[in-house]
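Notes taken during the Thursday session

The instructor put the following on the board and asked us to keep it in front of us for the whole hour. The protein is Biotin transporter. We were told not to look anything up and to reason only from what is written here. First, the residues (184 in total):
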Amino acid sequence: METRDIVYIALFAAIVAALALFPPIWLPVIGVPITAQSMGAMLAGGVLGAKRGSLALALFVLLVALGLPLLSGGRGGFGVFFGPTAGYIVGWIVAAFVIGYLTERFWNRLNIFTAAAICIFGGVVVLYAIGVPWSAAVAKVSVTQALTGSAPFIPGDILKAIIASLVIVTVKRSYPLLGNRSAA
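Then, after some discussion, the predicted structure tokens were revealed:
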């Protein structure tokens, strides 16, 4: 791994942390906030690729576990990983990997539509496949109930995926970080 890769990984971990500055919107009863940080996983995977994108989110999650208040609302610490949002937080690593992998595979045909489809798949479908069962287990409810409780977040997550896809395609055109290095 080159120094440049390490810098990109640290930069995107910082971008995810900076997305916490957007104030969380707490939905009544659910206890899970709407945040901008899930878009960070989409951006990291789509711009950096599978390996560097998932490492950026792994670094971010490690820093949160060590106690840095990097999550929206100033949350951090190991205790965060025992709450209903922990599956989503850990799922960001997987989502970044999946988005990065698919972006690398479709790089030559990447446009706004393929980027949006990739971000929706990795950043919504895959993320919910990890987060919903975790929330169900923590809340001691069925997966169906947890999915129903998560449904209000889906439109916002799709909007974040569209915004991320616009950024990914713009970065591809102006300063491609993947391209020929996608296998690196």
